[in-house]
Design goal:
With 236 residues, the protein is mostly beta strands. The chain has one domain: Jelly Rolls. The protein is built from no helices and 20 strands.
Length: 236
């Protein structure tokens, strides 16, 4: 088990952007936090109203954006334009190369998670997709939002990875089992506190399980939200 507590993350203050980095990113470097299997980046961003990232390129990376508050407008070199809000998830397969911009609503602070996953196949055609997921369908159960093949209404990415969200009431618990037995799991607590396989964690803590049979996840002291990323551990 690998534990990345919330207050141990790297932090960048750009004025308009406050960003906490679970893994090495930009000016934050930690030799033991380069990746967790195919999971490369978890950025926990707070973007000031009307601010954002100008047009910039990506290549051969799967990028998943999960808004927590506010909204984010996306435009890219493939002609895609979209606004994502709480309850929606956005995926972008950068493939052979794509450039995009991201800006928050002019009147609202935006909070989001942006997650990068190393791809299964390199050099694919770039692809963009976003989808609204009903928050009620993650109440005290796992809601699959990302998968390799878009199963159960999820968004497809170019990797054998599965992302699930759950909002769990106080003193209730769920059990998560691997979809692919060789995968590991990385748990990121969005809000609340949880008892996970016998240990207690709080909001924004991250816990990696390179090998697991099941994860026992119980919410403590009130409702909480958790993101489980089931990830291939062997990368080429």
């Amino acid at each position: 088990m690998i534990t990345h507590l919330a207050d141990s993350r790297g932090f960048a203050d750009h004025g308009w952007l406050q960003s906490a980095h679970t893994f090495s990113f930009a000016d934050y470097y930690h030799s033991e936090r380069m990746h967790f299997g195919a999971l490369r980046v978890i950025n926990d961003d707070v973007i000031a109203a009307g601010k954002g990232f100008g047009r910039h390129p990506h290549r051969d990376m799967e990028i998943i954006t999960i808004p927590l508050e506010g909204s984010l407008k996306h435009e890219d070199s493939e002609g895609n334009v979209g606004i994502i809000n709480r309850g929606e998830v956005q995926v972008m397969s950068a493939g052979t190369g794509i450039s995009h911009s991201e800006f928050s609503d002019p009147t609202l602070i935006t909070k989001l998670l942006q997650i990068w996953v190393l791809p299964k196949k390199f050099g694919i055609k770039p692809r963009y997709e976003q989808k609204h997921f009903f928050l009620s369908e993650r109440k005290n159960r796992f809601q699959l939002v990302v998968s390799p093949d878009g199963r159960e209404g999820s968004l497809a990415i170019n990797q054998d990875a599965f992302f699930s969200l759950a909002e769990i009431d106080a003193d209730l618990g769920l059990v998560y089992r691997p979809t692919i037995l060789s995968n590991g799991a990385y748990v990121f607590i969005i809000s609340g506190s949880f008892l996970i396989n016998g240990n207690t964690y709080k909001a924004r803590d991250g816990i990696g399980f390179p090998v697991f049979n099941e994860l026992s996840i119980k919410s403590l002291n009130g409702p909480g939200e958790v993101l489980i990323m089931e990830i291939p551990m062997l990368i080429k």
